[in-house]
Design brief:
Strand order of the largest sheet: 3-2-1-6-5-4
Number of domains: 2
Radius of gyration: 46 Å
Number of strands: 6
Number of helices: 13
Helix content: 55-70%
Largest sheet: 6 strands, antiparallel
Distance between the termini: 69 Å
Structural class: alpha+beta
Order of helices and strands: HHHHHHHHEEHEHEEEHHH
Oligomer: single chain
């Protein structure tokens, strides 16, 4: 732990730095809000200009439409052309800072005014065909070019405002990350450090060792003859006969040498006799561990096993619980169901399956049966692990020195 003055200085520096970062974040938030307002304003102007172009086209088409009055549509078309010039000038000022220009569309307004005057003159003379030629050729082309130019400006404005907003948001994330990293570093400085152990006298441990060697553990007199007369024969675990241990070792040896999966039910039959079980099922977990599938059974009707299907990992049963918790699970006998147990088959990456056992009626689940089932399940787990390929090189080549191999 650093001194108090150092900790106070670190805290003050962190608070000042956080205040500076917070002020910068507030500025970024204000800039982001202003950029959003500018984007909304530019979109409003572009939309109004596009709508004005459509309205102007409809007004000019009304010149040659039957039953329409020229004075009304003429004034509306002239007002629309004047408004269009103002809107294009406003848009040009918006895009000029980004290197864009609407000069071509602004210049085309004069061409549109001239075309409108000719069309109005032709209509006043009742020369509808000439007026239609002007409106549906020259005016149409001018308005189409303006519309395309306005849509192009809309896309450039949206991209520019979007890029600015993205830069501001990225800076805000960097400020937040910097503040978090700063306080994590300060917290690490506040963590207590390990105190160095005091240096002891080198002769101290020698004295302790000398005292320990000089003390002799008392040996009871009755224990000495038993120690000398104890037979050198392997002893079985408490409660398990030596014949049972020998049977388990034979079953494990058979399973380790198993080359054909079809021989597995025969080995399970011996396991059933060992555990006084009426049925056994070997379940293997899927690649993602979400379910169990039966791969070998003994004592159960195959149609029943087929009807059981897969067991999900989150299922409310004994087998699923053994897979989830990676520990043996037992179920005591009831009036309607015999006792049962399930033990996981563990591999290097966790449970690879489950061995489920249903005992005979009247048989209880004791610690000996659970231990024996766990031994068999451990041996069965090795059958689900891929075996490494042996070295196929010639033994004579490995045994000989390099000089003999080159000869």
């Amino acid at each position: 732990m650093y001194r108090r003055s150092v900790r106070i200085a670190c805290f003050v520096i962190g608070a000042l730095a956080t205040a500076g970062l917070a002020y910068r974040a507030f500025q970024d938030e204000s800039a982001f809000a202003a950029e959003r307002q500018a984007a909304a304003l530019s979109e409003q102007v572009v939309s109004a200009t596009a709508d004005l172009l459509l309205d102007l086209r409809a007004s000019l088409h009304a010149y040659v439409a039957p039953g329409q009055g020229l004075p009304f549509w003429g004034r509306r078309a002239q007002d629309g052309i004047e408004s269009l010039r103002e809107r294009l000038t406003t848009l040009d000022a918006m895009v000029s800072t980004a290197g864009g220009s609407l000069k071509q569309s602004i210049d085309a307004v004069k061409q549109l005014e001239a075309a409108e005057r000719r069309a109005r003159t032709y209509v006043s003379r009742d020369e509808m065909q000439l007026a239609g030629d002007v409106i549906f050729t020259e005016v149409r082309d001018v308005l189409a070019a303006m519309t395309s130019d306005v849509q192009s400006i809309r896309g450039s404005l949206q991209r520019r405002h979007g890029s600015r907003q993205a830069v501001i948001q990225q800076e805000q994330l960097m400020l937040a990350g910097g503040a978090l990293a700063l306080w994590v570093a300060i917290a690490l400085l506040f963590l207590p450090t390990a105190q160095p152990s005091a240096v002891q006298d080198p002769a101290q441990w020698r004295n302790h060792l000398k005292e320990a060697l000089s003390r002799q553990a008392p040996v009871p007199e009755s224990a000495a003859p038993q120690l000398l007369e104890a037979p050198l024969t392997p002893a079985a675990p408490a409660g398990v006969a030596i014949s049972t241990v020998r049977t388990v070792s034979e079953i494990c040896a058979d399973l380790s040498a198993l080359a054909d999966a079809g021989a597995l039910p025969a080995a399970l039959a011996r396991v059933g006799s060992l555990l006084d079980a009426t049925g056994l099922i070997v379940w293997v977990a899927s690649s993602d561990g979400s379910s169990l599938s039966p791969v070998a059974t003994h004592g159960f009707d195959p149609r029943l096993v087929q009807r059981l299907g897969k067991v999900r990992r989150d299922g409310a049963n004994l087998t699923a619980a053994a897979l989830r918790e990676n520990a043996p699970r037992v179920s005591a006998a009831t009036e309607s169901a015999p006792a049962a147990l399930a033990v996981p088959m563990c591999g290097p990456t966790g449970p690879a399956g489950v061995l489920s056992v249903e005992l005979k009626a009247g048989q209880a689940v004791d610690e000996a049966k659970v231990a024996l089932a766990a031994i068999i399940a451990a041996q069965l787990a090795t059958l689900t692990i891929p075996i490494a390929q042996p070295d196929t090189r010639d033994v004579s080549d490995i045994a000989q020195p390099p000089e003999a191999q080159s000869a």
